[in-house]
Specification:
Helices cover 46% and strands 16% of the residues. It has 434 residues and is of the alpha/beta class. It is globular and about 90 Å long. Pfam families: Histidinol_dh.
Length: 434
């Protein structure tokens, strides 16, 4: 982990370094992804199953691509009852949090004969991508599916890559069933994204695709955006701990490592006003690394994208935190709520030493699908709004339109759009002639 004194130059250098992790920096894979999408779009199931055999080494056919009820029942038998109980508890918290995000259609009218409003409707069909292979993420299933269910999406389709024997992880299947997924398909990678975007004989086209994945999945989502909606182009995981001399260095170290273990491109940053804390946290990291199972991944992550930034003042530290706009931000300071009010850019904010990042990943309720790579400056966490669409509603009586029709005509003529002006004028041409 690199320890540097915080200033404008070091922040600029750090931001440039972090941007190297963005999926937009991996253009060398775009041609391969484009070829996969093109083949699935034209050859449909034939290409989909061929790519599944090539990349996942699983023979899938139109008879086996969809998960059966028997497979789901078997998954329940294989999942430990204690894990099922935890999934169900987390589900309640996540659903409850997202139910508070729901909004209703609204309309307003006045005595002049106008009625304006907004009609809010859930999307009809959504595709949820869930990573597979060595990774097992039942929490990701809950976080992507439950806001869609709360929004009222009519049909939720899930895709996830199968193992070599064509099976899926039982905890993933159980989480999907508990969350309310309608149909599950055993396909992954860019080919799954293409199938969801364009449809095949086995997999229907969806309106929007959500869910994390590797660089090929991220680039495929980017490529099909416009044909379908997407949630975001997610980059590697990030954590930023903002701390002063009151913070527990052991907690700080543990929390930084909780994200560094995700992959070699993950970023873990400590910004502190205390040189003593910086030194002690670094010592604790060394101690934890002796016992953690993903030590090799963590060490590479910290070597490349791990930083300890020493700030002269908390105001300077907060300014840097807002510039970085981390996916996860923990505030471990003497007055964390006061500091929180000054945080403008963060995907999720964790306040105080008992609110560590994994609490948000699994259980508290807020969504763990968060903006990365500085996009927290303009993007928000996944939520109910991502699964609805809005239509403006406009009604004017003839009397109401008559009152303002000349204003519209003048505006249209100003822009030299005479057909626009005419559309208004014809409604009153008889009156104008009188």
């Amino acid at each position: 982990m690199k320890t540097v004194r915080l200033n404008q130059e070091t922040i600029a250098s750090l931001l440039d370094d972090l941007l190297k992790r963005s999926p937009n920096s991996y253009g060398k894979y775009e041609n391969a992804v484009a070829e996969i999408i093109s083949n699935v779009r034209s050859k449909k199931d034939e290409a989909l199953f061929a790519y599944t055999e090539k990349f996942d080494h699983a023979k899938i056919t139109d008879k086996t691509v969809q998960v059966t009820q028997q497979e789901i029942d078997e998954a329940y038998e294989r999942v430990e009852p204690a894990l099922l109980e935890v999934i169900q508890k987390a589900l309640v918290n996540i659903r409850s949090y997202h139910e508070k995000q729901k909004r209703q259609s609204w309309f307003c009218s006045d005595e002049k004969g106008t009625m304006l409003g907004q009609k809010i409707l859930p999307l009809q069909r959504v595709g949820v991508y869930v990573p597979g292979g060595k990774a097992v993420y039942p929490s990701s299933v809950l976080m992507n599916v439950l806001p869609a269910k709360v929004a009222g999406v009519e049909k939720i389709i899930m895709t996830t890559p199968p193992g070599k024997d064509g099976s899926l992880n039982p905890s993933t299947l159980v989480a999907a069933k508990e969350a309310g997924v309608d149909t599950i398909y055993k396909v992954g990678g860019a080919q799954a994204i293409a199938a969801l975007a364009y449809g095949t004989q086995s997999i229907p086209k969806v309106d929007k695709i959500v869910g994390p994945g590797n660089i090929f999945v991220a680039l495929a989502k980017k490529a099909v955006y416009g044909q379908v909606g997407i949630d975001s182009i997610a980059g590697p995981s990030e954590i930023l701990v903002l701390a002063d001399d009151t913070a527990n260095p052991r907690y700080v170290a543990a929390d930084l490592l909780s994200q560094a273990e995700h992959d070699e491109l993950a970023s873990a940053i400590l910004i502190t006003t205390s040189e003593k804390l910086a030194r002690q946290a670094k010592e604790q990291i060394s101690e934890f690394l002796k016992v953690l199972s993903r030590r090799e991944i963590i060490e590479k992550s910290l070597d490349h994208f791990g930083y300890i930034l020493l700030a002269d003042t908390m105001e300077e530290a907060i300014e840097a935190a807002n510039a970085i706009a981390s996916e996860h931000m923990e505030i471990l300071t003497e007055n964390p709520f006061e500091v929180m009010t000054k945080i403008r850019n963060a995907g999720a904010i964790f306040i105080g030493e008992s609110s560590c990042e994994p609490l948000g990943d699994y259980f508290a309720g807020p969504n763990h699908v968060l903006p990365t790579n500085g996009t927290a400056k303009f993007f928000s966490p996944l939520g109910v709004d991502d699964f609805v669409k809005k239509s403006s509603v406009i009604y004017y009586s003839r009397e109401a339109l008559h009152e303002i029709h000349r204003d519209i005509i003048q505006f249209a003529n100003c822009e030299q759009l005479t057909a626009h002006a005419n559309s208004i004028a014809v409604r009153f041409e008889k009156e104008e002639k009188q």
